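Margin note: ligand = magnesium ion.
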Amino acid sequence: MNFITLPHSLARRMILILLTGFALIQLLGLLIHTLNQVRLQQLEEEQEFATRAVIIYRHIALAAPEDRAALLAKEPLPKGDTVSLSLLPPIDHTYAMPLSARGAIRAAIIDYGIPPGIRPRGLLLRMQGFPPRFVISFGLPDNLFLPVPPNGPPPPNGGPENGPPLLSLGPLPDISALLPPVSWLTITSTLPPPAPWRSPGFATAFIVMTLLGAVMITWAVRRLLQPVKTLAAAADALGRDVANTKPLPETGPAEIVTAAVAFNTMAARVRRFVEDRTFLLTAIGHDLRTPITRLKLRAEYMEDDEQRTKMLADLDEMEAMVAATLAFSRDVTTTEAIARLDLASLLRTILDDAADGDPDHAAALSYTGPEHLPINARPLALKRALANLIGNALKYGDAARVTLHPPIKGMVRIDIEDDGPGIPPDEMERVFEPFRRLETSRNRETGGSGLGMSISRNILHAHGGDVSLTNLPERGLRVSVTLPA
Ligand SMILES: Nc1ncnc2c1ncn2[C@@H]1O[C@H](COP(=O)(O)OP(=O)(O)OP(=O)(O)O)[C@@H](O)[C@H]1O
Ligand SMILES: [Mg+2]
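Resulting structure:
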């Protein structure tokens, strides 16, 4: 099952595929940029925090132990940071600090060149909670000093009832080894949430880049596919008018030049083929006339009256067919120019002419439709095509009710209905073949050459239109003609 329905046109399909690819690449780029940015920011934060912590440590470590608590209280701290002094570093509910942060902080301690005399006696780098906080505990370089809590000095190993509980050291044997007891300075700081797109120009630049890419893709695809449209238009024009199509320009990218050359060669061959065929038809038609005339002369001398009449009738028919063949080739090769004409008036004129030619059936001719409907067509050829069809309706169906429908999707439709016997469904395509006549109509009275429908369809095809047949439910035939508006 196909879940994705691609657009109909090649250009839209290509644009859709390329834009999807482009969007994926942009997203991937954005992701890489974001990860990078987050990492950079993190490094920056770590660096900053390490510097801050070391400055505070230096400050406190240099002070006399008894002044430290007061100093600490006055320490200017950014929002979210805390500092405290404790007997043991708080390691409960903490977890290991990433290696990179540990590296940055150790480096900051070395960079700040803390004099050997006040080097921390222990350094514990941990993380805590979510969102994560950095927790740095410095073991102060001298012996234990803690502020005296209001209810008396703490017992040496602390207790739950006196101030903050002294935490068990758990799996950190090196700290318990730091004896005699050390007081610890702990500094904590929250990591600000990552803001990878905080640079104001970034969003604008990204949007502009994406839009520009999308516009470029759309433009390039449309431009690249333009020659395909030109080729399609040229093929269409060739189908309508073999004699007059202009060759395609043989310029542009190599593939397009190759296609244009191939198309022009094909058009030239088709043109030659049509010309040859028409020439052959004309030549045969023309050359047959002489022997037919000779045969007619000879038939006059036949003794048997009945045979002579039959032979002359056959020869008349042959002559008519030859004349029709010549007319057919003339119609097919018509190079009449396309002009703006009023289809409604043309249909009414044909009906008037038909009424003049067959006054008995004048009442059975009718026109329904708009007063005027201008279209582009070859006036004489189109008149011949429609007159053939209306003539047939009158000849075989004793009526011609013509309805002209206004354009739908750029096509006008003409329906010609009659009251005749209609055409058996299996004959409907075959009546368009040259010289094809239905047996029932093979009599002198309605006699024709069987070329009318074939000529009509040829002309209509050359206009980009068509003709089709339907039998009416009761009686009669409907001939539907379509033409570009
Ligand atoms: N309206 C119609 N009703 C019934 N049969 C039709 C109708 N139109 C055409 N036909 C049949 O189709 C055949 C082919 O028509 P076509 O117009 O090509 O030739 P034609 O009318 O016999 O001769 P021509 O038009 O060359 O003088 C006709 O002989 C006729 O049998
Ligand atoms: Mg006819």
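The chain has a mean pLDDT of 83.
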